[in-house]
Amino acid sequence: MRLRILTAALLAFAMLPSASAAPPPSRTVVFRGGRVLDGSGGAPLENAAVVVRDGRIVSVGPADKAKVPKGAEVIDFAGKTLLPGLISDHSHVGQTVGTTVGSQNYTRENIERQLRQFAAYGVTTVTALGMNRPLFNEVRKQAHADTFTGADLFGAGQGIGVPEGGPPQAMTNNAPDQLFRPATAEEARAAVRTLAKNRVDLVKVWVDSFLGKVPKMKPDIYQAVIDESHKQGLRVAAHIHDLEDARAVVAVGVDIIAHGVRDQPVDAAFIQEMKKRGVWYVPTLELDEATVVYADLPTLVDDPLLAPALSPELRAQFQDAAWRKKTLEDPKADEARHALSTNQTNLKALYDAGVKVGFGTDSGATPLRIPGYAEHRELKLMVIAGLTPVQALAVATGNAADLLKLKDRGRIAPGRRADLLLVEGDPSTDITAVDRIASVWRQGRQVAGPLTGTAQPAPQP
Ligand SMILES: [Zn+2]
User: Fold this and answer.
1) Segment 335-346 mean pLDDT
2) Three-state DSSP class for residue 135
3) Domain presence at residue 107
4) Residue 380 in contact with residue 393, Cβ under 8 Å?
5) C-alpha of residue 424 to centroid of ligand 1, in Å
6) Rounded distance from Cα 328 to ligand 1 centre (Å)
7) Is 369 contained in some domain?
8) What is the CA(131)–ligand 1 centre distance, in A?
9) H or E stretch at 127
10) Is residue 62, in this structure, part of any structural domain at all?
């Protein structure tokens, strides 16, 4: 039964070869005659050709100058735009199924399903920023393999929270093996050493108080985490909400601010410090939008872009008038609206000042933050915040790869992986064009076509 359901879910994304397929024979693909947005933030290249061989980009340039190797598969993409696959610097995997959240959902089957969902939406690389169980290492290794047809996976292992504090157990329903909650600086250092031994890609630390509901992380703990991480050659991403906490972690050397500042406008001193220290900033605008948008906009449930990712359980919840009323009456609704608008203002200020901005949504952390769909919402919210579509797409591709120090992807340039997103129309002038997916490619192999159908019931643990 479970297998049949999973198969149906895969078909919903028009997925191509299965994960167990042998590596394909070497081959050359030439995309010819369309528009290329290369992920660098520069102007699009019109009437371009991109040559891909054995999973890597060989050349990009004008179509009339391109040499088409003998035997190459030629794809005429006139009227379409080729982009690097999107890269999330802040998501989670294995937390949610339907409307449930908790450790029971951290299964290989569910994580693979989510990684395929990300890929179907054009997100070809995902960072699971904490709350991972020991299974993570195995799944990450599999996702790195070029036979896997879902998104590639990086992550922070468990991550480091606060005893009785963030991330609140009531919200995450985590098992004890999903987080370190050190009570002393020495315990914090020991946690980092364990993470380093497990070769995490980043260290995650939860600092803030979740709007005053739980105790904050004490400065001596996050200082110890940052210091020990740097000794181990690792960088630290901090969960914050308020400017005060962002300022405090930046002052002691944090590398990545993993959420936008959402309580007040950022000031010149903070912007200056972020720039001087080269700290990355990942706004996660969609996090707060997701808290209220499905109650605010009941018609969103019919968004065709959402259908392939919307489980029947979540659909029923969004259509439930009582749920919508409760959501709108909750004080969290207004807090989230305020947080989103502050976050957008701050993003524009920081981006324009030259602060390094990465791409993330916190998708997958709760049922409302829907993998793949969330990333498409985030792009629109960035444009509403005042970034141009080209800037927003560069953040979601080239910048997002730079944040992860991945020099093998994120741009359409010779030598990079052919992780590609082909869309109808011109997202450089209309960001919604990125929703009209024609195909998704991973290492030169097509892994998804147009988004079609509706999501099937998710696998039950
Ligand atoms: Zn998160």
Assistant:
1) 98
2) helix
3) no
4) no
5) 31
6) 23
7) no
8) 9
9) strand 123-128
10) yes
CATH number reported for the structural domain that contains residue 416 in this entry = 2.30.40.10
CA of 365 to the centre of ligand 1 (A): 6
Specify the 3-state DSSP secondary structure of 41: coil
- pLDDT for the residue 22: 53
262 has a pLDDT exceeding 80: yes
| Number of alpha carbons in the 13 Å side-chain half-sphere of residue 56 | 7
Query: In this predicted model, what pLDDT tens digit does every residue of 164-185 receive, in sequence order?
Result: 999 999 999 999 999 999 999 9
Structure confidence by residue, pLDDT tens digits, 297-331: 999 999 999 999 999 999 999 999 999 999 999 99
Check: CB of residue 400 under 8 Å from CB of residue 410.
yes
Boundaries of domain holding 75? 2-84+410-448
Ligand 1 centroid–CA 125 distance in Å is 16
Are the CB atoms for 162 and 180 separated by under 8 Å?
Answer: no
At residue 18, the pLDDT reads: 47
Strands 73-76 and 28-36, bridge-based pairing? parallel
Query: 93 C-alpha vs ligand 1 centroid, how far in Å?
Result: 10
Neighbours of ion ligand 1 (CB under 5 A): 129, 362, 365
Tell me how far the alpha carbon of residue 22 lies from the centroid of ligand 1, in angstroms: 34
Contact predicate 335/341, CB 8 Å: no
pLDDT, position 16: 46
Cα(178) to centroid of ligand 1, in Å? 13
pLDDT at 459: 61
Angstrom distance (rounded) from CA 251 to CA 234: 18
Residue with structure tokens 């009531």?
170
Asked, for residue 149, whether it belongs to a domain, the answer is: no
Distance of alpha carbon 221 from alpha carbon 238, whole angstroms: 12
Q: How many domains does the chain have?
A: 1
